[in-house]
Model the fold of this input.
Amino acid sequence: MQCSRYVRKPQDEYATVPFSSAEEVWFWFIRAHEASAAGARARAGMALYPRPCEPVDVARVVDRLYRQRRLLRDHLLVLAHYGRRLMAPNPDYRQEIKASSLWREAFDRIEPALRSKGIVA
Done:
């Protein structure tokens, strides 16, 4: 007989809250990545809002798009830089116009993939 405390609940039993946008997913992913790099341990069921994915799922989507050459290195650099700042580039600033267009292009390609996986509502 198996002890119930070691049996994982199926994912369907958790009421998950999908993200409202791909940008929200990205900022969540960056914060989770920085927390794990700082030594934090993620545990299932401990979040305020249970999410329909884990940070590694977002990384896989971005990696797949990069390998398909739908995302370029410039896209990834802009996503990483502004993701660490937790703000999107402002197209009204002359220095951030190119970054803003790369940011929009990247999310135009990332969002459909995240929607198809049910990560973004």
Summary: The chain has a mean pLDDT of 89. The longest helix spans residues 97-116.
